[in-house]
Design goal:
With about 80 residues, chain A is α+β, with helices and mostly antiparallel strands. Chain A has helices spanning about 5-15, 30-35, 40-45, and strands at about 1-5, 15-20, 55, 60, 75. Chain A has a 5-stranded mixed sheet. Chain A starts with a strand and ends in a 6-residue tail after the last strand. Chain B has about 160 residues and is α+β, with helices and mostly antiparallel strands. Chain B has one domain: Molybdopterin biosynthesis MoaE subunit (Aldehyde Oxidoreductase, domain 3, Alpha-Beta Complex), CATH 3.90.1170. Helix content of chain B is about 35%, strand content about 35%. Chain B is built from 4 helices and 8 strands. In chain B, strands 1-4-6-2 form a 4-stranded mixed sheet, sandwiched between helices. In chain B, strand 7 (about 120-130) and strand 8 form a beta hairpin. Chain B is globular, with a radius of gyration of 16 Å. Classes of the chains: A alpha+beta (about 80), B alpha+beta (about 160). The interface of A and B includes residues 8, 60, 75, 78 and 79 of A.
Chain lengths: ~80, ~160
């Protein structure tokens, strides 16, 4: 699974993207954020306030309860501030 | 016409002219230009860097444009969003809408900006005289976008 990060999530994790092998019990965006936050301090810091982290699966916005089955690219980012 | 993400500046007059060129069915063109502002005093902004998710930004802006076209009778839409490092006074975003009548042009431009601010994957990093950091999202932007959602509409 390819994960990509933007803005302060990228800075906190220290990576633009990474490829991870997920255990089968990680089924949703929420599960994935929990699993990532248990990996190391950097991920824990980035996903410390999960309520405000947004996600996209294959370049579409999704809710935390969304299934990640079949996803190619999952992006995590803060609330958007363009315009 | 269409959606463009670019580092370079844009020419508002040229974009409006391109949209209206050769058309006799357009009665109203509205353009909105978002500009990097400096603010004031010790906390003023000295520069702003726009981070973005290129492939998703293009796709999301095209979805927003299609949504506007489905809601209003539009003869043309142009959306240009810049990325990279900008300084106060620089243009950030341009939205141009063209319709037979002004109401559709005004309303769709307003809708496009409200949706763009809350759904297009861009993030601002401000360099300030007193320190730098990522700009936080504003609740009022979410509220502005939600006013376009009719009761019963789903907005994933």
């Amino acid at each position: 699974m390819k994960l990509i990060y933007f803005a302060w999530l990228r800075e906190r994790i220290g990576l633009t993207e990474e490829v991870v092998d997920l255990p089968p019990d990680v089924r949703t965006i929420e599960d994935l954020m929990q699993w990532l936050s248990e990996r190391d301090e950097a991920h824990a810091h980035a996903f410390g306030n999960r309520r405000i982290v947004r996600a996209a699966i294959d370049r579409r916005h999704v809710k935390p309860a969304a299934s990640i089955a079949g996803a190619g690219e999952i992006a995590f980012f803060p609330p958007m501030t363009g315009g | 016409m269409g959606v463009r993400l670019q580092r370079a500046d844009f020419d508002v007059g040229a974009e409006v002219a391109a949209l209206a060129k050769g058309r006799t069915d357009i009665g109203a063109v509205v353009n909105f230009i978002g500009i990097c502002r400096a603010g004031a005093g010790d906390d003023r902004i000295t520069a702003m860097t726009l981070d973005h998710y290129p492939e998703m930004a293009q796709a999301e802006l095209e979805r927003i444009e299609a949504e506007a076209r489905s809601r209003w009778p539009l003869q043309g839409v142009t959306i240009i969003h810049r990325y990279g490092r900008l300084v106060p006074g620089d243009n950030i975003v341009l939205v141009v809408t063209a319709s037979a009548h002004r109401r559709a042009a005004f309303e769709s431009a307003s809708f496009l900006m409200d949706y763009l601010k809350t759904r297009a994957p861009f993030w601002k990093y401000e360099e300030r005289a007193n320190g730098s950091g990522w700009v936080g999202a504003k609740d009022e932007d979410e509220a502005a976008a939600s006013r376009w959602t009719q009761t019963g509409d789903s907005d994933a």
